[in-house]
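Re-running 4-diphosphocytidyl-2-C-methyl-D-erythritol kinase to confirm reproducibility after the cluster update. Everything else is unchanged from the original entry.
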Amino acid sequence: MIVTTVTVRVPAKVNLQLSVGPVRDDGYHDLVNVFHAVSLFDEVAAAPADALSVTVEGPAGVPTGPDNLAARAAALLAEHVGRRPDVALHIRKDIPVAGGMAGGSADAAAALLACDVLWEARLGRETLLELAARLGSDVPFALLGGTAVGLGRGERLTPVEVTGEFHWVFGYADGGLSTPAVYAECDRLRAAGEQDSVWPQVSDDLMAALKTGDAEALGRALHNDLQPAALSLRPSLRDALAVGRAAGALGSLVSGSGPTCAFLAASLDHAAELAAALNDSGRFAAVRPVSGPVPGVTLV
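Result of re-run:
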Protein backbone atom coordinates (compact mmCIF):
# COMPACT_ATOMS: atom_id res chain seq x y z
CA MET A 1 0.00 0.00 0.00
CA ILE A 2 1.41 3.41 -1.00
CA VAL A 3 0.60 6.16 1.46
CA THR A 4 0.40 9.59 -0.19
CA THR A 5 -0.55 11.95 2.66
CA VAL A 6 -1.01 11.38 6.39
CA THR A 7 -2.96 13.93 8.42
CA VAL A 8 -2.85 14.09 12.21
CA ARG A 9 -4.92 16.19 14.61
CA VAL A 10 -3.35 17.33 17.90
CA PRO A 11 -4.81 19.27 20.85
CA ALA A 12 -3.70 22.30 22.81
CA LYS A 13 -3.10 22.03 26.53
CA VAL A 14 -3.76 24.05 29.64
CA ASN A 15 -1.66 23.64 32.77
CA LEU A 16 -3.97 23.00 35.71
CA GLN A 17 -0.94 23.13 37.99
CA LEU A 18 2.49 24.44 37.04
CA SER A 19 4.80 24.41 40.05
CA VAL A 20 8.38 25.47 39.34
CA GLY A 21 11.33 24.41 41.49
CA PRO A 22 14.63 26.25 41.88
CA VAL A 23 17.03 26.48 38.92
CA ARG A 24 19.06 23.29 38.46
CA ASP A 25 22.75 23.14 37.56
CA ASP A 26 21.80 22.47 33.92
CA GLY A 27 19.70 25.65 33.78
CA TYR A 28 16.35 23.83 33.79
CA HIS A 29 13.81 23.72 36.62
CA ASP A 30 12.21 20.68 38.22
CA LEU A 31 8.49 20.94 37.58
CA VAL A 32 5.20 19.54 38.73
CA ASN A 33 3.08 20.06 35.67
CA VAL A 34 -0.52 18.85 35.47
CA PHE A 35 -1.35 18.90 31.77
CA HIS A 36 -4.93 18.89 30.47
CA ALA A 37 -5.63 18.47 26.74
CA VAL A 38 -8.51 20.56 25.38
CA SER A 39 -10.63 20.66 22.23
CA LEU A 40 -8.59 23.21 20.32
CA PHE A 41 -6.62 21.55 17.55
CA ASP A 42 -3.86 21.96 15.00
CA GLU A 43 -3.60 19.60 12.04
CA VAL A 44 -0.32 18.46 10.49
CA ALA A 45 -0.28 16.78 7.08
CA ALA A 46 2.82 14.88 5.93
CA ALA A 47 3.36 14.04 2.24
CA PRO A 48 6.30 12.51 0.34
CA ALA A 49 8.72 15.11 -1.07
CA ASP A 50 12.24 15.52 -2.41
CA ALA A 51 13.35 17.41 0.72
CA LEU A 52 12.10 18.51 4.12
CA SER A 53 9.80 21.56 3.96
CA VAL A 54 7.22 23.25 6.16
CA THR A 55 4.24 25.39 5.18
CA VAL A 56 1.83 26.98 7.63
CA GLU A 57 -1.81 27.96 7.28
CA GLY A 58 -3.14 30.26 9.99
CA PRO A 59 -1.63 32.85 12.34
CA ALA A 60 1.58 34.63 11.41
CA GLY A 61 4.77 34.17 13.38
CA VAL A 62 5.42 30.45 12.86
CA PRO A 63 8.91 29.72 11.47
CA THR A 64 9.01 27.52 8.37
CA GLY A 65 12.73 26.73 8.31
CA PRO A 66 14.70 23.92 9.98
CA ASP A 67 14.15 25.51 13.42
CA ASN A 68 10.43 24.77 13.22
CA LEU A 69 9.78 22.16 15.91
CA ALA A 70 7.72 19.98 13.56
CA ALA A 71 10.61 20.01 11.07
CA ARG A 72 13.00 19.04 13.85
CA ALA A 73 10.65 16.20 14.79
CA ALA A 74 10.65 14.88 11.22
CA ALA A 75 14.45 15.12 11.03
CA LEU A 76 14.87 13.35 14.38
CA LEU A 77 12.55 10.51 13.37
CA ALA A 78 14.31 10.14 10.02
CA GLU A 79 17.67 9.94 11.76
CA HIS A 80 16.31 7.33 14.17
CA VAL A 81 15.05 5.06 11.38
CA GLY A 82 18.05 5.68 9.08
CA ARG A 83 16.49 7.55 6.19
CA ARG A 84 16.43 11.05 4.69
CA PRO A 85 13.75 13.43 6.04
CA ASP A 86 12.13 13.83 2.64
CA VAL A 87 8.70 15.07 3.66
CA ALA A 88 6.50 18.10 3.08
CA LEU A 89 4.77 19.15 6.31
CA HIS A 90 1.70 21.39 6.11
CA ILE A 91 0.53 22.79 9.45
CA ARG A 92 -3.02 24.10 9.77
CA LYS A 93 -2.91 26.13 12.99
CA ASP A 94 -5.76 26.93 15.34
CA ILE A 95 -3.69 26.90 18.55
CA PRO A 96 -2.32 30.39 19.32
CA VAL A 97 1.34 31.08 18.55
CA ALA A 98 3.47 31.73 21.67
CA GLY A 99 0.26 31.60 23.71
CA GLY A 100 1.29 29.24 26.51
CA MET A 101 -0.74 26.34 25.09
CA ALA A 102 2.15 24.30 23.62
CA GLY A 103 1.14 24.80 20.00
CA GLY A 104 4.67 24.27 18.69
CA SER A 105 5.11 21.18 20.84
CA ALA A 106 1.76 19.86 19.64
CA ASP A 107 2.85 20.25 16.02
CA ALA A 108 6.08 18.37 16.77
CA ALA A 109 4.14 15.48 18.30
CA ALA A 110 1.82 15.44 15.28
CA ALA A 111 4.80 15.40 12.91
CA LEU A 112 6.31 12.43 14.76
CA LEU A 113 3.16 10.35 14.34
CA ALA A 114 2.48 11.52 10.78
CA CYS A 115 6.00 10.66 9.61
CA ASP A 116 5.96 7.36 11.51
CA VAL A 117 2.86 6.35 9.53
CA LEU A 118 3.99 7.89 6.22
CA TRP A 119 7.37 6.12 6.33
CA GLU A 120 5.82 2.91 7.73
CA ALA A 121 8.38 2.99 10.54
CA ARG A 122 5.89 1.40 12.98
CA LEU A 123 7.71 2.68 16.04
CA GLY A 124 5.96 1.89 19.29
CA ARG A 125 4.46 4.47 21.60
CA GLU A 126 7.36 4.29 24.08
CA THR A 127 9.90 5.02 21.33
CA LEU A 128 7.85 7.96 20.07
CA LEU A 129 7.61 9.29 23.64
CA GLU A 130 11.39 9.02 24.03
CA LEU A 131 11.94 10.93 20.80
CA ALA A 132 9.33 13.49 21.85
CA ALA A 133 11.17 14.14 25.14
CA ARG A 134 14.33 14.95 23.16
CA LEU A 135 12.42 17.67 21.31
CA GLY A 136 10.96 19.48 24.31
CA SER A 137 9.30 19.15 27.69
CA ASP A 138 5.73 19.58 26.40
CA VAL A 139 6.00 17.32 23.34
CA PRO A 140 5.42 13.94 25.06
CA PHE A 141 2.12 15.09 26.56
CA ALA A 142 0.78 16.08 23.14
CA LEU A 143 1.26 12.45 22.10
CA LEU A 144 -0.49 11.19 25.24
CA GLY A 145 -3.34 13.67 25.70
CA GLY A 146 -6.01 13.37 28.37
CA THR A 147 -4.79 14.66 31.73
CA ALA A 148 -1.39 13.77 33.16
CA VAL A 149 1.16 14.74 35.76
CA GLY A 150 4.53 15.65 34.27
CA LEU A 151 7.65 15.54 36.46
CA GLY A 152 11.31 16.40 35.84
CA ARG A 153 11.20 19.05 33.13
CA GLY A 154 7.59 17.95 32.57
CA GLU A 155 8.44 15.04 30.26
CA ARG A 156 7.98 12.12 32.75
CA LEU A 157 4.25 11.52 32.47
CA THR A 158 1.68 9.68 34.58
CA PRO A 159 -1.96 9.68 33.41
CA VAL A 160 -4.49 11.12 35.88
CA GLU A 161 -7.97 9.74 36.53
CA VAL A 162 -10.63 12.28 35.53
CA THR A 163 -14.38 11.98 35.95
CA GLY A 164 -16.53 13.70 33.34
CA GLU A 165 -15.75 16.74 31.25
CA PHE A 166 -14.67 20.25 32.17
CA HIS A 167 -15.65 23.37 30.23
CA TRP A 168 -13.25 26.23 29.64
CA VAL A 169 -13.05 29.58 27.91
CA PHE A 170 -9.70 30.80 26.60
CA GLY A 171 -8.99 34.47 26.12
CA TYR A 172 -6.23 35.23 23.63
CA ALA A 173 -4.09 38.31 24.15
CA ASP A 174 -2.53 40.27 21.31
CA GLY A 175 1.01 39.04 20.66
CA GLY A 176 2.85 36.27 22.48
CA LEU A 177 5.20 35.78 25.40
CA SER A 178 8.55 34.02 25.10
CA THR A 179 8.70 30.99 27.38
CA PRO A 180 12.44 31.49 28.16
CA ALA A 181 11.74 35.14 28.98
CA VAL A 182 8.95 34.19 31.39
CA TYR A 183 11.16 31.63 33.17
CA ALA A 184 13.94 34.23 33.37
CA GLU A 185 11.53 36.73 34.90
CA CYS A 186 10.36 34.07 37.38
CA ASP A 187 14.01 33.55 38.42
CA ARG A 188 14.50 37.32 38.71
CA LEU A 189 11.43 37.76 40.92
CA ARG A 190 12.62 34.95 43.18
CA ALA A 191 16.15 36.33 43.41
CA ALA A 192 14.67 39.70 44.38
CA GLY A 193 12.57 38.07 47.10
CA GLU A 194 9.32 38.97 45.37
CA GLN A 195 8.27 35.33 44.86
CA ASP A 196 8.95 32.24 46.97
CA SER A 197 10.84 29.27 45.56
CA VAL A 198 9.79 25.94 47.06
CA TRP A 199 10.20 22.32 46.04
CA PRO A 200 7.16 21.48 43.86
CA GLN A 201 4.59 18.90 44.96
CA VAL A 202 1.48 17.55 43.24
CA SER A 203 -1.64 19.21 44.68
CA ASP A 204 -3.84 16.69 46.52
CA ASP A 205 -6.80 19.06 46.20
CA LEU A 206 -6.34 19.21 42.43
CA MET A 207 -6.12 15.42 42.10
CA ALA A 208 -9.27 14.98 44.20
CA ALA A 209 -11.20 17.53 42.14
CA LEU A 210 -10.25 15.81 38.88
CA LYS A 211 -11.12 12.35 40.22
CA THR A 212 -14.56 13.42 41.44
CA GLY A 213 -15.33 15.76 38.54
CA ASP A 214 -15.88 18.68 40.92
CA ALA A 215 -15.53 21.82 38.80
CA GLU A 216 -15.83 24.24 41.73
CA ALA A 217 -13.04 22.44 43.63
CA LEU A 218 -10.94 22.37 40.47
CA GLY A 219 -11.36 26.11 40.07
CA ARG A 220 -10.07 26.68 43.59
CA ALA A 221 -7.07 24.39 43.02
CA LEU A 222 -5.75 25.90 39.77
CA HIS A 223 -2.17 27.16 40.20
CA ASN A 224 0.64 28.53 38.04
CA ASP A 225 4.02 29.59 39.47
CA LEU A 226 4.80 31.36 36.18
CA GLN A 227 1.78 33.63 36.47
CA PRO A 228 3.51 36.37 38.51
CA ALA A 229 6.28 36.50 35.89
CA ALA A 230 3.78 36.65 33.03
CA LEU A 231 1.90 39.46 34.81
CA SER A 232 5.17 41.29 35.41
CA LEU A 233 6.00 41.16 31.71
CA ARG A 234 2.41 41.85 30.59
CA PRO A 235 0.61 43.85 33.35
CA SER A 236 -2.57 44.09 31.25
CA LEU A 237 -3.21 40.41 31.99
CA ARG A 238 -4.25 41.34 35.56
CA ASP A 239 -7.29 43.17 34.24
CA ALA A 240 -7.99 40.35 31.77
CA LEU A 241 -8.08 37.77 34.56
CA ALA A 242 -10.27 40.08 36.68
CA VAL A 243 -12.83 40.29 33.87
CA GLY A 244 -13.26 36.52 33.92
CA ARG A 245 -13.61 36.36 37.68
CA ALA A 246 -16.18 39.16 37.63
CA ALA A 247 -18.11 37.23 34.96
CA GLY A 248 -18.41 34.22 37.26
CA ALA A 249 -15.52 31.96 36.26
CA LEU A 250 -14.98 29.18 38.80
CA GLY A 251 -11.24 29.67 38.40
CA SER A 252 -8.82 31.56 36.21
CA LEU A 253 -5.12 31.53 35.44
CA VAL A 254 -2.55 32.33 32.83
CA SER A 255 -2.01 29.21 30.75
CA GLY A 256 1.61 28.03 31.00
CA SER A 257 3.96 30.89 30.20
CA GLY A 258 1.06 32.94 28.79
CA PRO A 259 -0.31 35.21 27.62
CA THR A 260 -3.47 33.15 26.99
CA CYS A 261 -5.85 33.25 29.96
CA ALA A 262 -7.90 30.19 30.89
CA PHE A 263 -11.26 30.46 32.65
CA LEU A 264 -13.12 27.46 34.07
CA ALA A 265 -16.89 27.37 33.60
CA ALA A 266 -19.50 25.45 35.55
CA SER A 267 -21.19 23.96 32.47
CA LEU A 268 -21.45 24.19 28.70
CA ASP A 269 -24.12 26.89 28.98
CA HIS A 270 -22.04 28.80 31.51
CA ALA A 271 -19.05 28.62 29.15
CA ALA A 272 -21.15 30.28 26.42
CA GLU A 273 -22.22 33.04 28.82
CA LEU A 274 -18.66 33.51 30.03
CA ALA A 275 -17.35 33.68 26.46
CA ALA A 276 -19.88 36.38 25.63
CA ALA A 277 -18.86 38.44 28.67
CA LEU A 278 -15.18 38.14 27.81
CA ASN A 279 -15.87 39.16 24.21
CA ASP A 280 -17.87 42.17 25.33
CA SER A 281 -15.06 43.30 27.65
CA GLY A 282 -12.77 44.17 24.74
CA ARG A 283 -9.79 42.80 26.70
CA PHE A 284 -9.09 39.90 24.37
CA ALA A 285 -8.08 39.56 20.74
CA ALA A 286 -10.25 36.42 20.53
CA VAL A 287 -12.22 34.15 22.83
CA ARG A 288 -12.70 30.39 22.47
CA PRO A 289 -14.87 28.01 24.51
CA VAL A 290 -13.38 24.50 24.70
CA SER A 291 -13.69 21.32 26.76
CA GLY A 292 -11.37 18.70 28.14
CA PRO A 293 -9.88 16.27 28.54
CA VAL A 294 -9.49 15.05 24.95
CA PRO A 295 -7.13 12.43 23.42
CA GLY A 296 -3.65 13.31 22.18
CA VAL A 297 -2.43 12.97 18.58
CA THR A 298 -5.03 11.25 16.38
CA LEU A 299 -4.95 10.17 12.77
CA VAL A 300 -7.61 11.98 10.71
